[in-house]
Amino acid sequence: MKDDIIAGLDIGSSTIRMVIGQKMAGENENKLQIIGAVEVLAQGISRGVVNSIEDTTSSISTCLEKAERLVGVPIQSVWVSINGPHIKSEKSRGVVAVGKSDGEITEDDVSRAIEAAQALSAPPNYEILHVMPVKYAVDNQEDVRDPIGMTGVRLEVETIVIQGLSTQINNLTKAIHRTGLEIEDLVLSPLVAAEVVIGVKQKELGSALVNIGASTTSLAVFEEGELLHTAVLPIGSEHITADIAIGLRCPINIADRIKIEIGSANHNKFNKKEEIDIKELMAKEESEEDMGLVSGRYIAEIIEARVDEIFEKVDGELKKISRSGMLPAGIFLVGGGAKLNDIVETAKKKLRLPVCLGTNKNISTVIDKVNDLNFLTALGLVAWGNQVISSQKGFNLPVGKTINKFINKAKKWISSLIP
């Protein structure tokens, strides 16, 4: 039973979530059954990066214990999401000569081409997380989807290389290993969320997933079935809460309540004289602050200004790849920040594209909790892990290779602490 368990660990700035899936025995071995989902408050993490290994380890341990109590079996390894402004992506090309004398391209040729694409000059202290092939070229034939079995002399591959700051990756792997968990691989969070949210046809047409977290907003853009661009922006829903707290001169917990329960990303919903009584919200938070009526339009204007900024930055990333207003399948919003009232309408206006909230389309589950916008990344990690385990060819990336060096370093570091 333990070998059938696949766990996804989504480490966010405000919350750590874990989804546990079990591979079904029988004819359809790829089928997954989701057997549990838990979440705990995160400590020791800021803007997607670890700033206290001790606190992060404690939070992950709490989440692990909660998950093991829920599913009744020990969890030994996890697929982990990674996020943060330190993540960079850039394009790279690799060229190799076809190895076989008859010119038939094999998997070995493709692997060598992808390896050649990794030989780019990375910034100091950066390590490669993923090498995602976008398209191949065989001799003079461009835009080849799968070159294996074709005949040629020269094989070229265009890839997107995703890199992370090695110190941040080290800190994250240390914190996880100190809980006794093994790491299957680290995967960029918008990539895994897209696995359960965006369909094959939508990836073909051109679409993007935008994950609005507490302190970061990440995106992944797809076209012709392949990844086109990724980015992590250092702005999220916590910035909206802070803006409300400053604008209304109220405590941060009250500002968060106002944002969730009465806030809106569209100030046109309120007339200028409309006021909202927030005494009930104050009572829920047991606050002694003397705040009665507040202007609904004023709150919405504060929220809308920051939401506009988030989508302007997203649009800026689309402009970098000449896809601003040019993704026919549109934008899919996930993450806690996407729960904000009227955010979809604001996003449509700013991005000039179809926009909708992301939903789980690819994994059937009886646990409603995992279909929540907050859990889609952790659910995506389970789907990603299942696909990779079932077929290494399902994803064009060297699974586990890049992370092994960090895992080994972390193991040595932990063993040095044991007397």
From TrEMBL:
Where does the chain cross the membrane? none
Q: Name one GO cellular component term.
A: cell division site
Q: Where in the cell is it found?
A: Cell membrane
Chief localization: membrane
Superkingdom as given in the UniProt entry: Bacteria
Q: How does it sit in the membrane?
A: Peripheral membrane protein
Give residue ranges for domain SHS2.
6-197
Keywords for this protein: Cell cycle, Cell division, Cell membrane, Membrane
Give the matching Gene3D superfamilies.
3.30.1490.110, 3.30.420.40
Which GO terms fall under biological process for this protein?
FtsZ-dependent cytokinesis
Q: What does this protein do?
A: Cell division protein that is involved in the assembly of the Z ring. May serve as a membrane anchor for the Z ring.
- Spell out the subunit comment: Self-interacts. Interacts with FtsZ.
Q: Which HAMAP family match?
A: FtsA
- Give the record's family classification: Belongs to the FtsA/MreB family.
Name of the molecule in the record: Cell division protein FtsA
The taxonomic lineage of its organism, from the top, reads: Bacteria, Candidatus Falkowiibacteriota
